[in-house]
């Protein structure tokens, strides 16, 4: 990694335009690996009020629709029942209105869960996808599978729908304010409301405040790290889609590459993207990645820890056998046709326009490309989630008059249409790149200077938001902080993990406790232990290879370090060390 210890100083002096102010600039330049003293630890408290909270915490524009005392028990999220302590459940909405643009009713819906035994902390649970649903406010701690939640740990937790009903799908993007609420404004509105509610419930506000989420929730977290830095002490961003409009366009680009090699049609006569690559063919690619790259970390164990070194070792053109013309269909899982290789190479290189200019990031070839999660995002999502999001939310003006679904994805022009994500007009005064992405994403100075901390993690087999993009972001953060930002921000790649969970990976881990220890005790995470969710675990990961221990552990290492085998039990994290790649 290139170190740039004087970058901040040079930019500061240039901005001030006066040599005499160099000393002032130098005083603001962060020292390499600068670390503030930890913030004071949160103090426990006890719930003082629940039944009358609606009256105690009344605020203009806020309606509390239900306040309920909930005994200790379980809360069901999807098909998983998770333990929850006794708490006060508050549900409501803010800023209810009728849109003058589409005449639909909007409000920012939310729920808060306030534990009777409080640890003095607040956790904003940012949700994923297009939002639109108030999911139970439990607070994820990172990775897949049920473990303890922020609520179980004693946090007061909020969850929200980001300002629109899920029943609208992406059509909320026809309303300019709903776009802004989704992008960043719902968080800005909900945070002070939540802290007021906490103060009325416990007799004081939170000592420490944390923000976390994965996917679009990870994007919310990265936005909050910049826009709401003064409101939060710790930020946890998982598989962050911080360039979500670009990534969604890249999904449409991918659909166009797959359509060109699809071997079957849908009942509607459209290319069946699933037929572009069979599961056996993607398993072949995964196996060839492992063949070339698995042992680069000192052990052939089904995990490619050294993604950077793998780039020089794996080339799809030479590593994967090429089928003779017309033989691909009869040699399923043994080879790829030349057009298939080109399609995959183009997708992994990153979406581009006809001039070769990049639209979105490259992706690393990794062992998780053969999984169900990878297939769903690559071959199914472009015609559904991505086409709808690009058409209604990210394009200015919205492309609502075009045929939707797969025809929209295949007809989207990378030269003519992609620039719409950066466009504005008289109705939509902020572009998608403005309201969705964190402004000056690498500038975490406000969070750093208040003593805050940030942890980012990302599966290296994420099929929709590229870990290459996150690594490049972290390089920019490093450069903006004298070449080393590890004193307040660290990035942990998760080898083999798909989008937020799954894949042939140790995908179960607790990043929230690591973040709290860093913020409040100054214990910077040198590594975080992750566990496989094999057969016999409460919610198994079907893509954990049968040969792994169900409880295999590995250290997740802060970028650019990687986990290197040092000897001993190959199923235990203690047999590995985080070392420079």
Would you give an account of this structure?
With about 575 residues, this protein is α/β, with parallel strands linked by helices. It contains 18 helices and 17 strands. β8, α4 and β9 form a beta-alpha-beta unit. α1 (about 5-15) packs across α2 (about 20-30) and α5 crosses α6. The radius of gyration is 24 Å and the shape is globular.
Brief sketch in words of this structure:
The chain has 581 residues and is α/β, with parallel strands linked by helices. The protein is 31% helix and 17% strand.
Taken from the alpha-carbon principal axes, the silhouette is: globular
Query: What is the number of E strands?
Result: 17
Alpha plus pi helix count = 18
- Helix-residue proportion: 25-40%
Largest sheet: 9 strands, mixed
- Ends apart, CA distance between termini: 10 Å
Strand order of the largest sheet: 2-5-6-9-8-10-11-12-13
Low-pLDDT stretches are 1-32
Strand percentage lies at 15-25%
Rg over C-alpha atoms, rounded to the nearest angstrom: 24 Å
Mean pLDDT: 93
Q: Based on helices, strands and strand pairing, what is the structural class?
A: alpha/beta
**Oligomerization category of the chains in this entry:** single chain
């Amino acid at each position: 990694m290139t170190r740039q210890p004087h970058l901040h100083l040079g930019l500061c002096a240039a901005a001030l335009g006066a040599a005499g102010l160099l000393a002032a600039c130098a005083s603001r330049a962060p020292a390499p690996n600068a670390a503030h003293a930890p913030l004071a630890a949160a103090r426990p408290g006890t719930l003082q009020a629940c039944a009358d909270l609606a009256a105690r915490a009344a605020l203009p524009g806020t309606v509390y629709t239900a306040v309920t005392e909930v005994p200790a028990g379980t809360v069901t999220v999807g098909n998983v029942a998770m333990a929850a302590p006794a708490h006060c459940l508050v549900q409501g909405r803010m800023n209810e209105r009728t849109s003058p643009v589409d005449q639909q009713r909007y409000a920012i819906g939310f729920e808060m869960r306030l534990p009777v035994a409080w640890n003095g902390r607040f956790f904003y649970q940012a949700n994923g996808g297009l939002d639109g649903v108030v999911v139970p406010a439990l607070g994820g701690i990172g990775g897949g599978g049920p473990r303890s939640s922020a609520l179980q740990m004693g946090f007061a937790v909020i969850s929200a729908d980001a300002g629109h009903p899920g029943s609208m799908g992406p059509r909320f993007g026809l309303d300019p304010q709903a776009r802004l609420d989704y992008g960043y404004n719902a968080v800005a509105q909900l945070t002070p409301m939540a802290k007021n509610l906490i103060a009325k419930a416990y007799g004081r506000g939170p000592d420490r405040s944390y923000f976390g989420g994965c996917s679009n929730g990870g994007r919310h977290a990265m936005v909050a790290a910049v826009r709401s830095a003064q409101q939060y002490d710790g930020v946890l961003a998982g598989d962050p889609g911080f360039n979500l409009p670009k990534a969604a366009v890249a999904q449409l680009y991918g659909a166009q590459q797959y359509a060109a090699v699809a071997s079957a049609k849908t009942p509607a006569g459209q290319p069946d993207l699933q037929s572009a690559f069979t599961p056996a063919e993607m398993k072949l690619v995964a196996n060839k990645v492992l063949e070339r790259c698995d042992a680069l970390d000192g052990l052939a164990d089904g995990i490619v820890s050294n993604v950077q070194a793998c780039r020089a070792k794996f080339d799809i053109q030479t590593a994967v056998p090429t089928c003779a013309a017309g033989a691909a269909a009869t040699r399923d899982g043994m080879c790829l046709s030349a057009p298939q290789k080109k399609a995959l190479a183009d997708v992994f290189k990153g979406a581009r326009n006809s001039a070769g200019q990049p639209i979105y990031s490259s992706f690393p070839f990794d062992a998780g490309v053969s999984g169900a999660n990878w297939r769903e995002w690559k071959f199914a999502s472009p015609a559904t989630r991505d086409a709808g999001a690009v058409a209604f939310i990210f394009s200015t003006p919205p492309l609502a008059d075009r045929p939707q679904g797969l025809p929209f994805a295949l007809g989207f022009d990378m030269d003519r249409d992609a620039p719409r994500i950066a466009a504005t007009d008289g109705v939509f005064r902020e572009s998608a790149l403005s309201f969705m992405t964190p402004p000056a994403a690498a500038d975490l100075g406000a969070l750093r200077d208040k003593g805050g901390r940030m942890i980012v993690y990302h599966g290296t087999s994420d099929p929709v938001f590229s870990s290459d993009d996150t690594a490049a972001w972290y390089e920019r953060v490093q450069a903006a902080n004298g070449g080393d930002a590890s004193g307040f921000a660290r990035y942990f790649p998760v080898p083999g993990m798909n989008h937020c969970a799954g894949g042939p990976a140790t995908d179960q881990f607790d990043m929230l406790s690591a973040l709290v220890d860093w913020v409040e005790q100054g214990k910077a995470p040198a590594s975080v232990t992750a566990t496989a969710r094999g057969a016999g675990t409460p919610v198994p990961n079907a893509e954990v290879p049968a040969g792994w221990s169900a409880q295999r552990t590995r250290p997740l290492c802060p970028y650019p370090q990687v986990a290197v085998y040092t000897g001993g039990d190959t199923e235990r994290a203690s047999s590995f060390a985080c070392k420079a790649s």
